[in-house]
Amino acid sequence: MLSKPKYLSTVKAIIHIIIGSTVFAVGVQGFIVPHKLLSGGISGLSLIIYYVTQGILSLGSINFLLNIPVLYAAWRWLGRWHLGITILGTIIMSILINLLSPLEALELTKNPIIGGILGGLFSGLGLGIVYRGGGNTGGMDPIAMIIRNRFGLQIGSILFGINMMILIVGAIVINIEAAATTLISTYLAAMVTNKVITGFNQRKAMFIISYKPVTICNLIIDKIGRGATILNGEGAYTHQPKQVIMVVVSLLQVARLKAAVEAEDPTAFMVITDAAEVIGTGFSARSTNGAVERVLQTCDPVKAAEAEQMIHEVQMARNEIPSQEHKEEQ
């Protein structure tokens, strides 16, 4: 019996698999197959076999058969839930590829390069939708997820590396023109996949050097709804102590934070860089009460007393708790 969060995750994954697999199948049957181009992963190997055998078996059936050995990897390293999603994704993808096979006869594009470009865009978009929902469609997806979990690489980049090896085989078995055009398609698919996965959830790390660190931190917490960390630094030329504010924000929050910091301190120095992955609890709450509890739970008794005093001072500065003078006035 699945728990409610797991149940919702499963439903979400299934919906994304259906939508993403449909988009992917349109790309393969509508643009890749008509020009006898290749694709990446297991679908690429399926296309090679499909072309060599001249369609004795349907493309979807070949795709399903080649996915069988991959299921062990999904079970061994990703767990039973991912195994179930992999099996479901493989079946849905194979069925949709067969159902959309009539697109091949429509000749949507006459130019193989245009076909490769559109095929890559559709394929990348479809796979990105699947991954964004936490699903996969079998093939090299479980292998890519295992590599990502172990080494932290982006899925699109992992698949691109695997696909290069498949293209070499395709160039030998089919022809080098098809492999060269597929190279463009595969590159586009990898880029689109990464973009769809990150989307507007891409994180940016900002380092801010200002003479008003406390004011900037309060601004970040109150106006942006994010936490921040103050790092102690030293100017290389002046050797004067400086405080560097580090904050991680979403892509949509970058412009807001830049404008707010510039309005507060026009002389502030800011460095903005991509954050490949952010792990840990976000600081979205406006109050620091939750932060107090988390710090005290993770600190030893000596550090806990120091941390409690520091957070108490921050709360007083932000007027979350009344100061002693304010209490006396009351």
Give the topology.
Layout: H1 4-32, H2 41-52, H3 59-78, H4 80-99, H5 112-132, H6 141-151, H7 155-173, H8 176-198, E1 203-209, H9 213-224, E2 229-234, E3 241-250, H10 254-264, E4 269-275, H11 289-298, H12 301-317, H13 324-329
Antiparallel strand pairs: 1-3, 1-4, 2-3
Query: How many alpha or pi helices?
Result: 13
Mean pLDDT: 80
N-end to C-end Cα span: 57 Å
**What is the 3D shape?**
elongated
Largest sheet at a glance?
Answer: 4 strands, antiparallel
Q: Could you tell me the number of beta strands? A: 4
Give unreliable regions as ranges. Answer: 283-300, 325-330
| Number of discrete domains | 2
What helical percentage do the residues reach? 55-70%
Strand order of the largest sheet: 2-3-1-4
Counting helices, strands and paired strands, the structural category is alpha+beta
Describe this structure in words.
The radius of gyration is 26 Å and the shape is elongated. It contains 13 helices and 4 strands. The protein folds into 2 domains: 4-199, no CATH class; 201-324, Alpha-Beta Plaits. Mean pLDDT is 80; it is low at 283-300 and 325-330. Strand 2 and strand 3 (241-250) form a beta hairpin. With 330 residues, the chain is an alpha+beta fold. A 4-stranded antiparallel β-sheet has the order 2-3-1-4, with helices on one face.
Descriptors:
four-stranded antiparallel β-sheet; 13 helices; 330 residues; alpha+beta; 2 domains; Alpha-Beta Plaits; 4 strands
